[in-house]
Amino acid sequence: MYDIVIIGGGPAGSAAAVYAARKQMKVVLITEFFGGQSVVSDDIQNWIGEKSISGIELAKKLENHVRSFEKIEIVTGDKINGISKIDKGFLVVSEGGKKFETKTVLMTLGAHRKKLGILGEDKFNGKGVAYCATCDAPLFTGKEVVVVGGGNAGLESVVDLIPYAYKIYLIVRSDSLKGDKIMQEAVLSNKKVTVIYTADSKEIKGNGFVEKFIYIDKKDNQEKELSVQGVFVEIGSVPSSGLVKDLVDLNERGEIIVDHKTQRSSLTGIWVAGDVGDGLYKQNNISAGDAVKAVLNIDQYLNKGKGV
Ligand SMILES: Cc1cc2nc3c(=O)[nH]c(=O)nc-3n(C[C@H](O)[C@H](O)[C@H](O)COP(=O)(O)OP(=O)(O)OC[C@H]3O[C@@H](n4cnc5c(N)ncnc54)[C@H](O)[C@@H]3O)c2cc1C
């Protein structure tokens, strides 16, 4: 029986594993991969202690730190797909058929990109449809592309694409941009960029690869099309809470409701840290800090049976 099963290997899961090892807990960390969402970022400038670090480098540092504690059991490349309550805690089961009995579980499942849900999106995924401009912008050198999303993610994608793409159409549902002013200026002042406001994405068409992006112009309710070779979907992210939706309370956005003093969920024995929780701000440092709080509280729970 483990003291703690940590699910996820982003900044939250990694920080939790280090703290759990130092608290002498019997711990296993299970993750599809180390590093979490910002692994795709070229340049992270606010991870405390590093002026600038790439997502891949950050992932390696997190993994190395976790692996430096021999007592931490690590399972990578597998995914947890079941958690159930048992007599003295929980049974956690992976897709690969591994089973872990544990007194407590820490959910650091993070979040994943939201899809548009329009015709052609899945069909052309990887064939012109992309979800990470930082990763894929060079593939669109000299091409015409659409970026969907008027928030910071959309604006950052446009900025990532500017050095490569020939022409960028930014599709925005409302009549204004939502992202930071400095990003808005960078986008609006560039001649390669055309912003199309009050536009609802309708369909992606092509023949093997993306050729057309269809949208409804809400000003005249007319269907319009753009000839493009790429569509970047940047409309936010969804918490990866599906695994526990029947076990713990979620809010209307699907985030796990957390007691922010202790990081406890609504079910005794399950703690939460990072982007999968209902915290207002989603950042690497915050996720790591949440995880530290959670493990310290789990330690009290295990040792005194009560916590704070
Ligand atoms: C492109 C991009 C750039 C960003 N840049 C910054 C930045 O510069 N600075 C900053 O502070 N923040 C940045 N963020 C936000 C930051 O990445 C997140 O706040 C942070 O990664 C959240 O950490 P987490 O540990 O909660 O979850 P995640 O990083 O999402 O990690 C969750 C991990 O859990 C694993 N997992 C999920 N479900 C399962 C399962 N069922 N079984 C096993 N493993 C599972 C996932 O594979 C993943 O490895 C950025 C985000 C994106 C998308």
Automatic annotation (TrEMBL):
GO molecular function: oxidoreductase activity, acting on a sulfur group of donors, NAD(P) as acceptor
InterPro entries cross-referenced by the UniProt entry: FAD/NAD-bd_sf (IPR036188), FAD/NAD-binding_dom (IPR023753), Ferredoxin-NADP_redctase_2 (IPR050097), Pyr_nucl-diS_OxRdtase_2_AS (IPR008255)
Annotated ranges, domain FAD/NAD(P)-binding: 2-279
SUPFAM superfamilies: FAD/NAD(P)-binding domain (SSF51905)
Key words of the record: Disulfide bond, FAD, Flavoprotein, Oxidoreductase, Redox-active center
Gene3D superfamilies: FAD/NAD(P)-binding domain (3.50.50.60)
UniProt keyword annotation of Disulfide bond present: yes
Secretion signal, residue range per the UniProt entry: none
UniProt-recorded name of the protein: Pyridine nucleotide-disulfide oxidoreductase
Source organism phylogeny: Bacteria, Candidatus Liptoniibacteriota
